[in-house]
Amino acid sequence: MVLYKDLFWQLTLREIKARYKQSILGYAWAILVPLINLLVLSVVFTYIFRVPTGSTPYAVFLFVALIPWMFLVSSLTSATGSVMANSALITKVKIPREILPLSAISSKLVDLILASVLLVAFLYFYQVPFHITTVFIPVIFLVQFFLILGICLILSATNVFYRDVENILGVFLTIWMYMSPVLYPSNLIPENFKLFFFLNPMTGIINAYRDAILYGRFTDTYGFIYSATFSLFILLVGIIYFKNRSRFFADVM
User: Fold this and answer.
1) Which residue has the higher pLDDT, 156 or 22?
2) Is 49 helix (H, G, I), strand (E, B) or coil?
3) DSSP state, 76?
4) 193-239 pLDDT, tens per residue?
5) Is the pTM of this model over 0.85?
6) 119, 67 in Cβ contact below 8 A?
7) Where do the structural domains in the chain lie, given as residue ranges?
8) Between the chain's N and C termini, which has fewer beta carbons within 10 Å?
9) pLDDT band at 14; cut points 50, 70, 90
10) Measured at the alpha carbon of residue 230, what is the angle toward residues 229 and 236, in degrees to the nearest 5?
């Protein structure tokens, strides 16, 4: 894979440039999209449904989870079709095909970084104090990245053989969001559903982000350990599955 690092960077830069090519606002969309989502959801869940978040303003509570969630959604959406989008490259050049979904995910890091800058501005505006636990954010992100990469490897390989995957993905992501504590705190989940709810690996990840950034503590340590274990498992499964299926890519393209 190291031998193909130049190809990886070229594919990543191509993805970034293609997304904002002939766009009037360009990279500003990376900030405007999460900002618009935040505005709409904040109004709905502050003034209509009134989700309790204690002393933390709902806009801040939501934004801390919305940014990593949007990174997950954009990565999965882009990476799922990455192999098919580069079918000409696969049939003509011998390359490690894992580069394709990996570069699709990496191209979304630009949006993530710009949105994170906006989050810092929000935290400053709402006078949220800095906590030393923010040093753990790279660890939390790494766990999330492993989860995303594992899922993307599975979906991108499956999509080559069954094109329905891209169509089903949008519905799946919508359901997954409502089953994750993005819009609401975990303590609102009824006792009867908590076991099923905490089997969702994004629950531990989102709670870890909020604990580290907003509260300066880790209240869901076991949940995060489960998420980390699950993410590593999915990554391993994804690598094995992708390698096995990639042998037949050229035959069906």
Assistant:
1) 156
2) coil
3) H
4) 888 888 999 999 999 999 999 999 988 899 999 999 999 999 999 99
5) yes
6) yes
7) 2-252
8) N
9) confident
10) 95
Report the sign of the C-alpha dihedral through residues 195, 65, 170, 82, in that order.
negative
Question: CA-based angle 32:202:208, to the nearest 5?
Answer: 85
- Residue 216 and residue 13: Cα distance in Å, rounded? 36
What amino acid is encoded at 118 in this protein? L
pLDDT attached to residue 102: 93
Residue 187 is encoded by which pair of tokens?
């303590």
Residue 37, amino acid: N
Encoded tokens for 25: 């606002």
- Please indicate whether residue 144 or residue 50 has the higher confidence score (pLDDT): 144
Q: What is the pLDDT of residues 102-151, one digit of tens each?
A: 999 999 998 899 889 989 998 999 999 999 999 999 999 999 999 999 99
The CA-atom distances, in angstroms, between 216 and each of 67, 134, 135, 207, 222 are 19, 8, 10, 12, 17
Listed as own residue / partner, the contacts of 203-209 with beta carbons closer than 8 Å and 24 or more positions apart are 203/227, 204/228, 205/68, 205/140, 205/143, 205/144, 205/147, 206/65, 206/68, 206/69, 206/180, 206/181, 206/182, 207/181, 208/136, 208/140, 209/64, 209/65, 209/68, 209/137, 209/140
Quickly list H helices, 81-108.
82-85, 87-92, 99-106
Long-range contacts of 125-131 (CB under 8 A, 24+ apart): 126/57, 126/59, 126/60, 128/56, 128/60, 128/213, 128/214, 129/216, 131/212, 131/213, 131/214, 131/215, 131/216
Gap between the Cα atoms of 215 and 237, Å rounded: 34
Whole-Å CA distances, 51 to 57, 68, 180: 10, 20, 15
